[in-house]
Amino acid sequence: MADGQSMTVADVVAQVRDGRLEDFVREAVALVARELMEAEVSAEIGAELGEVAPERRLTHRNGYRPRGWETRVGEIDLLIPKKRQGPAYFPSFLEPRRRSEQAIVAVVLEAYVNGVSTRKVDRLVEQLGIDGMTKDRVSALCRALDEQVEAFRQRPLEGAYPYLWLDAKQVKVRDHGRVVSKAVVVAYAVHESGVREVIGLDVGEVESGAFWVEFLRGLKRRGLSGVRLAVSDQHEGLKAAIARVLACPWQRCTVHFTRDMVMHCRRDQRGLVAAALREIFNADGYEQAKERVGSVLERLERVAPKVCELLEDAEEDLLAFYSFPPEHWTKLRSTNPLERVNKEIGRRSDVVGIFPNDASVIRLVGALLIEQNDEWLVSRRYLSAESMALILQDADLERGGLPEPAAEEVGSLAAG
User: What is the model's pTM?
Assistant: First the structure.
């Protein structure tokens, strides 16, 4: 345990009196923070540290997790108490939104001092009230944020992650004097404990199959394992990369598929087509969904032949989620659970407009994703421990097998 975390009030007073404590204010802040965290977590648990109180106790302590805390007296190494059960404890005095605000300021200022500013950036700098900004000051701010984001991006992944979502968003980046479109790719996953995490972030020249292969290999090098289903929008390169690197079933986002399909028919037919497709994705199980696919194909054959052709081709990819516990279906059949995060990334990106370089994209999106990860960490589990046990304890899955009928699909992809 860090010295600042383990010191008592008596220790601080004694060291000040003896002249042995060089930074009294910093150590005092660390001490107060530790005492406050212990008081808050005790209230959530229902018992003090070491207290026997079975009538009041809700759970038990479960060690600590380290986290740096930037303050006006310097960075303080916190050891945040953990609980065995219930929502994770998060100190009330931390500022979960501070990092991303620093990141967006850093991106704007980096563009400004490097001579690529626009009228929008000029106005933002003026509104921020920043005068005398130099390249050295901007570099220092960027460097501090980059270290945090890089540590987050490269952290080891421990345990199994049965469910993985992959998404990409296009942003404008200045590259060798030109403005080009690049893909920001993000990986989200559900840990075996049922908690959501952001596990990967990168920027690619193009959203190609080769890029996705390297991205997924990077996740595996950091420890990604136990993936039972990968969910994403349609992208042939990504689909092939999932089969090649992860060898797991792929779930095509049903929401994006429905949106795409209604564009292949007349305006007055779109409501009918959308309702028919929703019937498939709200079935009671795989067999019923297969029957509904056949029924929809018959009903829409004359009305929307193109939709029927595309539905028939994508059938297995759209129904892969039915091989998993019913409690998980609404979360697995689309990338919609990520919409709020994606909108926030888009909102921040729109403020910048054109990023000055790749590093600035990683800095801003990474800072935002760290905050999102913190929020998920302290919120209730995304999927219950009981429902996660249904797939973790399945003998076939533990031996590396794939749930039917998705196994045949992965086999065909790998062969191709």
Answer: 0.67
